[in-house]
Amino acid sequence: MLAKETQKQQELTGRDQWIVFQRLLKYLAPHKKMLILALGLLILTVLGDVLGPLLIKIFIDDYLTPGSFPTGPIIGLAGAYLFIQTSNVIISYFQLLKFQEVALKIIQQLRIDAFAKVHGLGMRYFDQTPAGGIVSRVTNDTEAIKEMFVTVLIGFIQSTFLIVGVYIAMFFLNIRLALITLLLLPILGWIIYLYRKYSSVFYQDLRERLGQLNAKLSESIQGMGMIQAFGQETRLKDEFNKINDKHWQAGKRNIKIDGLLLRPAIDLVYALALIMLLSYFGITSFSNTVEVGVIYAFVTYIDRFFEPINQVMQRLSIFQQAIVAASRVFLLLDEQEKAPRQFGTAGEITNGEIEFRNVSFSYDGNKEVLKNISFKAKPGQTIALVGHTGSGKSSIINLLLRFYEFEKGEILIDGNSVKEYETDELRRKMGLVLQDPFLFYGTIASNIRLYDQTLTNDEVRKASEFVQANPFIEALPQGYNQQVTERGSTFSSGQRQLVAFARTMATDPKILVLDEATANIDTETEVAIQASLERMRRGRTTIAIAHRLSTIQDADLILVLHNGEIVEQGTHQQLLYQRGLYHKMYLLQNGIVE
Amino acid sequence: MKVFWELGWFFKERKKQYTLGILLLLMVAFLGVLPPRIIGFVVDRISEGSLTPEYLATWLAILAGAALVMYVLRYIWRLLIFGSSIILARNLRAQLFQHFTQMSPAFYQKRRVGDLMAHATNDLQAVQQTAGAGVLTLVDSIATGGFVIAAMALTIDWKLTLIVLLPMPLMAYMTNYYGKLMHERFHGAQQAFSGLNDKTQESISGMKVIKTFGQEQQDIDDFKSLSERVVEENIRVARVDSLFDPTISAIIGICYFLAIGFGCYFVVNGEMTIGDLVAFTAYLGLLVWPMLAFGWLFNIVERGRASYDRIQALLAEPVDIDDREDAIDEEPSGDLVFSIEQFNFTGDERAALKDVHFTVKQGETLGIAGKTGSGKSAILRLLLREFDDYKGSILFGGIAIDSYKMQRLRQAIGYVPQDHFLFSTSIAGNIAFAQPNAGLREIQEAASLAHIHEDIENFTEGYETMVGERGVSLSGGQKQRISIARALLKEPELLILDDSLSAVDAKTEEAILQSLKTTRSGKTTIITSHRLSAIQHAHQILVMDKGTIAEIGSHEELMKKKGHYYEMYELQRLEALVEQGGEL
């Protein structure tokens, strides 16, 4: 998937980049007012920048050259100069700040959009896309776009305004010379074009090599135990050094292209500009008088003119990165793998009767993982699903909970298609307990409550008591307010599972779905877990996937799945009596050799 | 500036490049003084009305020549100095990698991957900056600054130079101060960002839970408030960041004002010409960069030093397990005699192993049972020579394992760890990890023995299917079996399965054990497992408890003993009996 994505990035043509850029600009729209304010301030600062040298020019030509210094006008000029400078400083501060604020707000919006989009995607998307990649889209890529807005776009706008301002001033001072200096623009344009053309390729290459380098390094550190155990240090070192070398070569190419086309080149054009100015003034001076102040002003303007160009060019690579990053974010935003749609035509789930009618399903459209599955769970019954990994157990649950859309057959709850209920209703009435009880960063209480603030402390406690998690929670130093670190790693898997049980019970579901809820439990907590499970199941329709057959022996119906088909069904005793697949699994699991 | 001293070895190594580079930098700095001076000359002639075409042409030719030469020199010094700095980064990176390969697992337990990566990425970057941009700013700010000031003072007027320079140090001071402020606030912004990152990571990992409880909207709201914090923190940064440019232009403005004000006074007094004044202001423009650079220099050097210290500290970590000088260069083979009086993990007072003595005859299978933390893994880790500091001895073929060359000992062992780690390469590449030259047939054979061949064949790209972030996601059981195939391909003298069948179903477990039995005759195998079914056929079974051997013997012997093993086993049987209504 990622490999595919990197390929896509390389294929970004100039046109694609332009489209991505335009789409980014659309995010500016809600901030129109702020932008206009910032642009207004910007125009004021440019005005100040342009007026300063002009004042000095007047001073030089009108007072210094003739050598007359009337106090009034001189103080007036000095005052005006100082006033312009001071207000310029203050205004430019706010202008810079406003632009950054807009940029930050835009990125925030982009992030929220991306994050919300992720929540709307179907589980299929998460199967196909590594989590790290999605996180990168939402945070790192948007961060790269922020850099572009803050440093490149703002710099670009500033430079453009300044250049326009400087040209207006130059035209005001001397039209012919200003026209001549216009020649600089195509030269600069050409350099920028060249730089963009080559550096985008080289820079992209450098980034990719760095990515490879870091990936290799990170993997080697994580797998060092294996590398050493298999004595592959030298081979890995060689592989790493090869990538390291390639990265270095890419770095060298970048230094070269930067050296050829960045600051040294711009400085060369600057010298050319000076030569143009001096020749013009020199040649004019042979026939006419030239005002020194005008020369001063032009020299200063040309000076001002080049600095922002240098800065923007140095940051072009950021622009490039941002466009690539943005294209990835937009790819996510355009992702079509939506979560299944609900029609919302059915009302409430009251009984919890579940029926599968001839359901067939395939994840990839080719290989059917479920073939014509039919069964019925009456309200309050427990149905157990057993079978090998890949037999289709989890798929049944995935369809029932609407994580995936299915086309063939029908799943009914209380006689209505599962597609007809509101998502909220399904979530409220069905409680799923996963094999890996995922705990969030926060406290025990916040993990039981999740975001449901209507749950009182009392209800949280009751739910824990119900699943017998209360004793262990109370025993914690902070009780229910005990910190849960990332993924709850400080708790045992059994404790985590008990918290997950409490979380599910707090919502008091009509239907309970257990996805190998006891698979990872150590034998010590297993007894407690089993007891809790039994209490949880009372009065609820339960669909349970079981790894250990001992946990489902009292199920009302056990379905034995094999290659997506129900090959045997019945109660524990009936199935043992049949001496079929279930019997075999049972014997093997108990280490009994006949 | 100490860091330049510390990096001295590298500068010496690249003496030619740095000397020439710095020389060129000095030349560029010197040539940079020319243009304003030329402007001054020409302006003077114009204002006097004495400019001749020859005079103009000469100076413009000089200007053009200087510009071209500067362009070439600038290109070359970049190549020399920046080029060297990336060589430093490359070499340090290789050194780090080399060092990483020598560090023992104890080291990796202490350090987090993220930290180690940070050394190899951010810190390296900072050191590279020091050796490149650091050297540049140091030389350039001193040289350009020096030449420009000299040109101002010597060719124009030293008094005016002094007056105008007065506010300049303020600029260096202010920007440096802002830099520090930025650093602090940036830290806050960084934290807010990583908070957002963690949040996103967690939401995506816990997506199923969030969906199950229908709390997508609440989660998005939570994300919103976190992203709001990111904005706030970043605005705090922006408040300082936006100070840079205005401050610089304020101070430059003051300088210009002083230059024009006092300059006029000197011009009127006849101490200076108007051309001088124009040249002088042009020089002022040239001073901005060295002043800024001086402010940055401290930042670059400070960061560089801290980073280089960290890298050095890391490289200075001693290699705690190394070959002896007279290490035996032979692959060990024969009986295993494990005889440990005591072993503690570093920093742990409780003994991980105490009085553990057993012998595994060549070709036999040893099973080790026991709870988590009973010492099963400690035994295996000592066998793998991950630790050297134990009381007692471990003999392999009659010779202590620390007498062999590491490489040789490891050649003899095929290890399948509990936490199966696969590399992001093809499945074939993973299986052939220790034998990169193995043919597809051998790989397939190993895969068949590990009962993963059919699974692999079912992938669209078969053995060429990529594993890891970029490839197919494998189930825990599949990963375990690939790890087993990887170890089996080695046909090792000693095969160690560290609870490596836990994610495999009972049928497959039985099949794998069966194929091990048939293919590994004459070779030693050690299996640890929670499930007794995986070890009950072993020649000898150890039951570990609290770091010591609770029971030892064959399945039959242990059953007769009616001890711990018997209890565990009977518990299972009892369960079975009860579940079947007592009829078996």
Write the layout of secondary structure elements.
The complex is a heterodimer of chains A (594) and B (584).
Chain A: H1 2-10, H2 14-26, H3 32-64, H4 71-120, H5 123-128, H6 131-173, H7 175-181, H8 184-222, H9 224-229, H10 233-261, H11 263-287, H12 292-314, H13 316-333, E1 354-362, E2 368-377, E3 382-387, H14 393-400, E4 408-413, E5 416-417, H15 423-429, E6 430-433, E7 442-443, H16 444-449, H17 457-466, H18 470-474, E8 483-484, H19 493-506, E9 511-515, H20 523-537, E10 541-545, E11 557-562, E12 565-570, H21 572-578, H22 581-589
Parallel strand pairs in A: 3-10, 3-11, 6-9, 9-10
Antiparallel strand pairs in A: 1-2, 1-4, 4-5, 7-8, 11-12
Chain B: H1 2-6, H2 8-13, H3 15-32, H4 34-48, H5 53-102, H6 105-110, H7 113-156, H8 158-165, H9 168-205, H10 207-212, H11 216-269, H12 274-316, E1 336-343, E2 353-360, E3 365-369, H13 376-383, E4 391-396, E5 399-400, H14 406-412, E6 413-416, H15 427-431, H16 440-449, H17 453-458, H18 476-489, E7 494-498, H19 506-519, E8 524-528, E9 540-545, E10 548-553, H20 555-561, H21 564-579
Helix pairs in contact in B: 3-5, 3-7, 4-5, 4-12, 5-7, 7-8, 7-12, 8-11, 9-11, 9-12, 11-12, 16-18, 20-21
